[in-house]
## 1
Amino acid sequence: METTTIAGVEVSRIGLGTWAMGGLEWGAVPDDEAIATCLGALERGINLIDTAPIYGRGHSEEIIARAIREHGRREDFYIATKAGLDWNERGVFANLTPARLRQEMEDSLRRLGTDYVDLYQVHWPDTLIPVAEVAAVLNEFLRAGKTRALGVSNFSGAQMEEFRSAAPLASNQPPYNLFERAIDSDSLPWCAANGVAVLTYSSLCRSLLGGRVHRGMSFDANDIRSVDPKFQEPRFGQYMTAVERLASFAREHYGKSVLELAARWVLDRPGVSVALWGAKRPGQLDAVAGVMGWTLDAGAMAEIDRIVADSVTDPVGPEYLTPQVREA
């Protein structure tokens, strides 16, 4: 397993993403399988586990706590969780009020069964509260030892600059994959220039690059992909053409799967520290080994760019994931 550092702590360059383990947006997941997935990640050299209260409305954090207890050594896990999303019957809203942040920290510590988290991240910006005010509250947690580092997610370079004016900033977690590259023009170069680690989510684009999605596939109403525009025609056909061509390229040039190619692509992008790998069953981690030990050169990167540009004529980003603005 390749490693890197976040705020001086060594972490695996593949991190386990646990959104699916919450059991809501990606279909039901038996608890024993989810726990086995966390433990299986550790066995494969993956120590970074990323979660959030919104994942299963706290259930993902509870699953991680059970995995830690079963394993027996909290220090073997690097736990990254988040704060700042509220939900009700009308949807999901950004909420970074001080009271909300303080309550979320205590709730996450309780659910995770620990007295500290390794990395505490702001899940999304709240347009109703200045970033510096949010950072000041999180800095309280850092000084109190409730977290060992602070991070953000879905922040622009300007927003991270403001955050850093009030608290130390260790990381940013943006969406990034072969099909979604908006950070190339702003937050990725900002992080590289300022020594901020980058943890990418949706590294396999909601499994579109995982090798299991096929043409004509449909998704249940409780599957987040049922409302993802990438999985709706005519775009779905365009993206599947790209996946099929990328799969042929990976097989012919490297003897690899499209999944292994896609994850390697993320890890080889300048400035990327960690690629998060979503899984809800241990077997979904088997391909991790095939991502290690090789790299993509400039020629391969250029050919991948050509395949994507030729195949996807109507691209769309992950904007549909953006939370609503709450009532002030």
## 2
Amino acid sequence: MIFESPRFEAGTIVAGYMASQESAHDSQYSMRVLSFYRALQKHAGYLPARGAKVLDIGTAGGAFLDAAKQYGYDAYGMEPSADLVARGKARGLQIEQGTIESHSFTPGSFDLVCLWDVIEHLPDPKAALAEIRKLLKPQGILLINFPDIGTWQAKLAGRRFWWILSVHLHHFTERSIRHICSLTGFEAFHFQRYWQTLEFGYLERMAVHYKIPLTALITRLTPGFIQRLPIPYYASQTTALARIKQ
């Protein structure tokens, strides 16, 4: 288990997310909806049937909720950022501002709870999973998508691995995800690489932000029409599915 140290206290971290402005993240909304919809199709054999009630924690501007609605789910979201909650509600999505520690959802009411690229941000992921377990129905499914620090890409990059960021408080592998699930009453039963699609220019800007060598120069030389191209890519993210231990 690898973790960020030193770091801010939990209250400071949550307050920062609640006040954050995320226009850059939200600029790829349609691309994210497409990626999420494809992921739901890919995992259909393991997920609840259409019509199920779904909660997405850390839903940002609601791209997963949009995809889930299109898929046929009754989708709800939770997000700390007031800015992103307002963007999601303007799209007609059901989003509550808050965190897993402060919500108004009824225990045992969801068939599926999702953490898309969220668990690494949580000050106390073990406590969060324990709370999520209370929200799930007995046959419910937990979905965790996470930056996997156990991949060959991560091992090759070492300290330069692009997901080692100050906002990522914990770095998981398949083994540690299995372990934390087991500690909180879950059994992880399926792991799969996560591919998503984003515009090439956005990926370039993220690469510059993460200080990947030569990307600033390449970005300046890339024509506008190429920057708008949708690019499917895999960047060491893994989707894990878990069920409640019986």
## 3
Amino acid sequence: MTNDTKNSPNSRLFGCDKAVAETIAALISCYQRHGKLLVCGNGGSAADAEHIVGEMMKGFCLPRRLSDDDKARLASVASDDTELLATKLQYGLAALSLVSHSALITATANDQDGQLIFAQQVWGIGQAGDVLLAISTSGNSQNVLLAAKAARAKNILVVGLIGASGGRLADICDIAIKVPSDQVAEIQEMHLPIYHHICASVEAHFFA
């Protein structure tokens, strides 16, 4: 294998090209319908959830400058802050990390059941046409599985970012991105270039 092949974008998808392409298409469709992306996971996958939302909600690889119309709207209300807002704000692709809301998560764990910390959020804010990206290296994280089941009940498309075995999550997902490893550290290392590719591809569709 040449260095060019090793470093090509497709080589970093670890044979998951079809599922990744389906995910990109699903997210583009979601955003065209004014839907949103919900992301959840535990441990390192929780950090990945935060990372993904950061890439979607502001410029990642491309500038997302405001239109003249939006700059004019800001100018009509922002007064002395017009220049800062008009030149620094960027367009976002609506995304929420379900690992971030500590008060809600702890209240759900205390008042209901700790396994419902993601499912409660999906049920409360998810809408038909949204996408849930459920990240689990084992595919068997119960709180992630319950979130996926809640999403399916609300007609939210579920994408699983998982390992080779897929676990129980693979059977619940609409799209399963299964990287070729059963080792947690390797799975997490493979997940990162995959979700970077997804974020960059969706961004390019709307902002290139």
## 4
Amino acid sequence: MILASTPTHALPFAVVLAYAAWAWGQPRLSTGLSRWALLLVGLLHLTVLHRHFTAEPPTFGFALALSVTVWWVFCVFALETRLHTQAALRWTVAGLGAGAVLLAEQLPGTIHPHLSSPWLPLHWALGFAAYGLIAAAVAHAMWLQRTERRIRQGKADADGMPLLTLERMTFRFVGMGFVLLSATVLAGGVFSAGMETSLVWSHKTLFTLLSWVTMGVLLWGRWRWGWRGRLAVRTLYVAAGLLLLGYVGSRFVLEVLLQRLS
């Protein structure tokens, strides 16, 4: 069941303030201080996640999965800022990070008193990484569309990211996310094989496999026929939407909607 209430902790609010302070102050900081600020925000968010996973009893749910995914996106953003300025995404990343942390505090998920298989942590870790990289690909695809619109309107892009470079980065994240998603599916199969029951064709399994197939088609089309532009971006959005429905969507229905109806 969902925990009805949780003790008030100052740490999540410190993370929210850190995200807001970093987003506001980043243009005013030197390169060295900006990197230290990124490191501090990432460590604070990671500390909140660690507290959730080491709580007694441990809990997990869709909000915590979103928080982990956003933390991965923030890490990708932090690494990229060493090469390219990303002012357009700064407030978006900060808002997502702060919102995900607060949501995980309010909806910590269901209780997991023990692990049903030693493969489960590996399955979760690979899944989180895949979610993060695919979310980063979606963020870059949205940025790509924004840049294309500005070019058509004859406006200079203040972010300084060349269009072709941004496109290559987007598909690199798609490729890395696809590899990790493939490993997640494989680990999930091993995890199910190690249990007494066979693989359960739940909503999570179905949507995850549909997302995996869609992403594979996208990469094949990119390699074979040079897919780009709206077709490629919309296919990526479909794949990411299916993946989101796979775990986060199904857990949201179970943890929030059905609980409210019961």
